[in-house]
What does this fold into?
Amino acid sequence: MRSIIVGTAGHIDHGKTALVKTLTGIEADRLQEEKRRGITIDLGFAHMDLHAANGDLLRIGFIDVPGHERFVRNMLAGVGGIDLVLLVIAADEGIKPQTREHFDILQLLGVRHGITVLTKADTVDADTLEVVRLEAEDFLRGTFLEPPKAPTIAVSSLTGVGVPELKKALIDIAEQLEPRDSQALIRLPIDRVFTMKGFGTVVTGTLVAGTIRCEEALEVRPGGRRVRVRGIQVHGQNADAAFAGQRTALNLAGATTEDLFRGMTLLPAETFETTRSADVSLQLLASAPHPLKNRARVHFHSYTMEAVVEILLYEAKQIAPGERALARFKFDDPVLLVPGDRFIIRQFSPVLTIGGGIVLDAATEARAQKQPDFVRTLLNGDARTVLAARIARRRQGGISVARLVAETGRPKNMIESELADLCRTGAIERVGDLFLDKPSLDALKLRVVTASSDFHKNNPLVAGISKEELRDQVGASSAVFEPVAAMLVRERKIEITGDVVHLPGRGVVLKDEEAESKKTIENAFASAGLKVPALHEVLAGLKIDTARSQKIVTLLLRDRVLIKISDQLVFHHTALDALRREIALRKAKSPTIDVTQFKELTGVSRKYAIPLLEYLDRERVTKRVGDVRTIV
Ligand SMILES: Nc1nc2c(ncn2[C@@H]2O[C@H](COP(=O)(O)OP(=O)(O)OP(=O)(O)O)[C@@H](O)[C@H]2O)c(=O)[nH]1
Ligand SMILES: [Mg+2]
It folds into this structure.
């Protein structure tokens, strides 16, 4: 069974609702006020089944929109998800302002299929009908509704004239439509929220992409509330699943009617992010009354959502009526947008549709500055080129598959297969869980090697640069740095010893007398046990100058050959290890030790005993309690 969504469009009172009723038998005007005033105010819904030529069932959902100029914003909430439009023109009135405005909107939203319906055919004679037909033909020239590519059918909802032809035209067009993508990520812009007795919260909308099943966990954006699908209805009938292109009602657990509004979107959980800015391709209608200036504020409509937006033009100071330009939109509040989304802009006062366009990028946080070359690639490039550009934009930061899914709104498996292609061509590379473009990765690798080599030059007596310092210097995240360092090790560009990075074959290069001095210092302390000499005395006995001998000490401390426990006292690590062992042995005899006992145990004077005990406290070998220490 195929499902398609048909929208009505056209001026007030031209017979849209009457036409939907004639086709489906359903009265789409459901509000009291609509019935009283005889006009449509909000969206109306109806449906019918037809049989395609091959006998297949065709389920047609109708979205009936209001024609009144005051309710264009409601019309906008309905037309975002339609496959096909019935442009309604009353034979007794011809083309009127909202015929034009609705038709502008349909074109800006990229609607590509439709039928022009000349309604109220019973109210005019054949000549007048012919005049209106010519007027319509003129109006539609060069558009997706240009006859004879798209049919024009005269209908009377009163007499039923033209209704069979209209149904046949609907079937013909429905058969040519590309089915919507049920494999894509779920996207349901909410158009109604209400409670149903015995069920609780119900939302409705046109499922523009994906498949929703019962019990599915979904997310509402903006806000991020998690909900569970308790029940599904498609065109008023219970269903196990709703597929892209269907009018869908969902009974939701996890949210009340106060939490949900028209304009919110239901999405797969933890997949998308909202944004406060987006880069777009914008077109100003030829009928717009003024040029659009940089920094103008306008109403923004996309699917069922509306917002206020400030327009920052990319290059021009203003856009003239009829022109296109790249722009960055700044939203007052976070919105959910995905590349490829169509939108409409309307000026504030008087409220009037002035333009629209297509969202190119909603992940503008990746670059605070405008990004003209990148945006042009998004506008003109194929899916793979766009993906490569999205990766390159992140430079050495890289980007994960999950982030690419969120940025593009495209399913994971498609992204992964394109990533595999790009990796094969060498344009991008996998780095841990992230993907980097080749030039950024090469530049980062070079920086790591250069920084390591510079460190050796500036610190000849140190084994190498610590990993963390190196990572900081090259400005990489741990997620990128670790795998890149591992790559460089495999490529024999660097070596890593413990936490220290150095170039292969490099490390500390000591001159002969320095090496000899190092041994002298080490021996002096190793043989002293706990009764260590003063460091300055040891250094004074060396053949090298103080600056160099200090560097050697730094090196010994860094490698933890010597350990400094106070400003004055330095010990060889073997002496301290032995001390720990002795303290541990003592614990078997006594759980505590005081200063006097410590002096006896180690044979050191008070001058050494106090700093040593304080060191042991810091090391959590002992714990001071008043005058004694417990052995931990
Ligand atoms: N004679 C005649 N009257 C019609 C026909 N279609 C609609 N009407 C009448 O025209 C009036 C307006 O029709 P609606 O269907 O409510 O018009 P609409 O386009 O839905 O109006 P809005 O939703 O307010 O924009 C009603 O009084 C209808 O009875 C028709 O084919 N023939
Ligand atoms: Mg109506």
Observations:
- Residues 193 and 258 are 9 Å apart (CA to CA).
- The chain has a mean pLDDT of 93.
- The radius of gyration is 38 Å.
